[in-house]
Design goal:
Elements lengths: L7 H13 L12 E3 L5 E3 L2 H21 L5 H21 L6 H31 L8 H8 L29
Antiparallel strand pairs: 1-2
Helix pairs in contact: 1-2, 2-4, 3-4
Length: 174
């Protein structure tokens, strides 16, 4: 199943408003004002709401891309297409040449680059996660458990495991 690029939603909303409702402005303040504890009133615009929606959708896209087993190639390709279309609209069409649409385009670029970086990071980290742990052989563990309590345990005579002294041995004199 191909996943839908979520940042296409705010871009589609922007396109719908620009092409089908030219009288609506993204910079006009809405009638609703939110009183803050400081005493100020926060008046937000449709552009603010669209940008906030885009940031939340960007978070969901990054979470979706970080899941194991995600379809990386398709997701990256669709994200790149969305970014390319947004960048082309920003550069080529007069109605899209403003800071709001620039920030929406920038969010699509961030989504594409975060998906690629998550994919490459997961690719490098995979071999280290599969590294086997050092476990004593099962036969040695079984043998140690069946020993009577009075017998000494076997000692390891590997030169790598011998304690080192602070000084090196003195050379033999002829």
């Amino acid at each position: 199943m191909v996943r839908f690029p979520l940042l296409l939603i705010p871009l589609a909303i922007y396109n719908i408003i620009v092409w089908l409702m030219p009288s609506v402005s993204f910079t006009d303040s809405l009638q609703t004002k939110v009183p803050l504890v400081s005493g100020a009133e926060w008046a937000f615009t449709p552009g603010d709401i669209l940008l906030a929606l885009s940031v939340v959708l960007l978070l969901l896209e990054v979470i979706k891309g970080a899941r194991p087993g995600a379809k990386f190639l398709t997701d990256h390709l669709l994200s790149l297409v969305v970014f390319g279309a947004a960048a082309a609209e920003f550069v080529l069409l007069r109605q899209f040449g403003n800071s709001l649409f620039f920030l929406l385009t920038l969010l699509t670029l961030v989504e594409f680059l975060s998906g690629v970086s998550l994919h490459t990071r997961r690719g490098r980290a995979a071999p280290a996660a599969v590294e086997p742990a050092l476990v004593p052989p099962a036969a040695a563990v079984e043998h140690a458990e069946t020993r009577p309590t009075g017998e000494p345990s076997p000692t390891i005579t590997s030169p790598d495991l011998q304690p080192s002294s602070g000084s090196s041995p003195a050379p033999d004199k002829p």
